[in-house]
Amino acid sequence: MKSKSKLLITGANGFTGQHACNHFSKQGIDVIAVVRNKNNAKINNVKVECCDLTNQTSVKELIYKVKPEYILHLAGQNHVKESWVNPIMIMEANVMSSLYLLDALRTEHPSCKVVIVGSALQYDILQDKYPPHPYSLSKTLQSLVSESWSKLYNLDIIIAHPNNLIGPGHSKGVCSLIAQEIVKTENEMPAKPITISDPCIHRDFLDVRDAVKAYETLFKYGNNNEIYKIASGKSHSLGQLVSKYQSLSPKEVPVTVNKSNTKEAPIRVDVSKMKALGWVPGISFETSLKDILTFYRQLEDQKD
Amino acid sequence: MKSKSKLLITGANGFTGQHACNHFSKQGIDVIAVVRNKNNAKINNVKVECCDLTNQTSVKELIYKVKPEYILHLAGQNHVKESWVNPIMIMEANVMSSLYLLDALRTEHPSCKVVIVGSALQYDILQDKYPPHPYSLSKTLQSLVSESWSKLYNLDIIIAHPNNLIGPGHSKGVCSLIAQEIVKTENEMPAKPITISDPCIHRDFLDVRDAVKAYETLFKYGNNNEIYKIASGKSHSLGQLVSKYQSLSPKEVPVTVNKSNTKEAPIRVDVSKMKALGWVPGISFETSLKDILTFYRQLEDQKD
């Protein structure tokens, strides 16, 4: 991945997208940020292209115009709850838009190297007969069609499955939700009480900036048509998360932690494939939480 | 499946669709035939509705308007060769249109019983890592989303996987292609020479009229979210097919049969699940071939 290489980032306005634009443009990469609506674009110092990725013609025109050497495909819908209500929208946003992108590469620019960002929430067809929700189905099909397109049309496609990404920026994850309420409490505003129903539930949290570096590693060294799990390889319980936040704020953290009924075992995401490519996460869990708090504190300060 | 029940048949203009409209309307079923373009409709004595099934809004309006008790979903694209060139069209026609239909049932009419007609050409995700062609991928995804929608939203969906369907009517199958050339020869017109590269290749041929009866059996007795193979359970080599045709025509059949290099074993499609529901094929291979010849002979006579 040479300096001045053209990298197209879809979903550039999202949580990961903004970090990715920032990281790659600092590396001297020629970043083209794809957003749906230019007026809402929150990205600075990179070129911005508007495109509705659920429109096949628009996607084809975008690829024909930009002809990027790399694509980081982050765009999509990732709301599990919403997927129950509007499953077609989820399928179009996650499956068809990926297909439009890959098929535009097939016809317009087949030499491009693509990282498709899937999800750890996809279900394993080989083990489970049914998906737990439409979102899971959509991400499984996204992987499936990406692998198939790579094989059928000899395209250079790598699939990344990130776990829970955390870090500064607007996110709907649990770390972000708690931090927002902590900052409200610190500013003596009424906080929305959060309840952790089971503190023993374990998650693998990875800083989004480490994930972006993992995507860079995949562009450099990733193997065509392989699936890579992107995670810290470490397990934290939600109870630990709340305690850690408590140690980072002078105020009482507005989270009710229920008593646990179960002792859920820590999870171990196997990240050996990423490590074999030379990638290791560099940001500790504590640093991520500190930076999330700082992000929301600064946001609150700006309001004054 | 009572008399006067409302049955919506998609792909009604197709090879199987025409037979299905004919069969079910004769049973006293209130058939509503869905076609893309009314001007091209080849179906008589049934109600016809126009709908572009790749348009979600149109599909929703159709289901809201008709509220059928049964749907036989035959519509789709089934050209393997074309699927390489226009794979997105195949995915939209086979995957998204099925999803639009099932999702319209979810929101407008969830009590409907649906038979989704898949294909024996779908690949087995559990065994094969990649599909052999985009058509195969599209039919695998069609099954997958149908099973998922049935489970996620508690809809009454049955999946049928027919093998090679043959019989009178316009079809692009090998039995139909050979018959057309035989009839040309019989009428002393120049026939296009057909070459059978390997006479030992085996196929399971089933008469389309038996397949339609199988779909009726599924409406009556089929189990929700089950996949049923629809086939004769008998194997015929392409060499046998040519010999059989030769015995049915006074003229030399214009087919060149290469010498076989391999001895392909007969195939055995397991149709025990269909037989357990009381269905058995009733039309012999020879009768099917005779009826195909009769169809093309009558077509030729009508030209005079």
From TrEMBL, chains A, B:
InterPro entries noted in UniProt: Epimerase_deHydtase, NAD(P)-bd_dom_sf
Domain NAD-dependent epimerase/dehydratase: 8-231
PANTHER family from the UniProt entry: DTDP-D-GLUCOSE 4,6-DEHYDRATASE-RELATED
Family: Belongs to the NAD(P)-dependent epimerase/dehydratase family.
Protein name per UniProt: GDP-4-dehydro-6-deoxy-D-mannose reductase
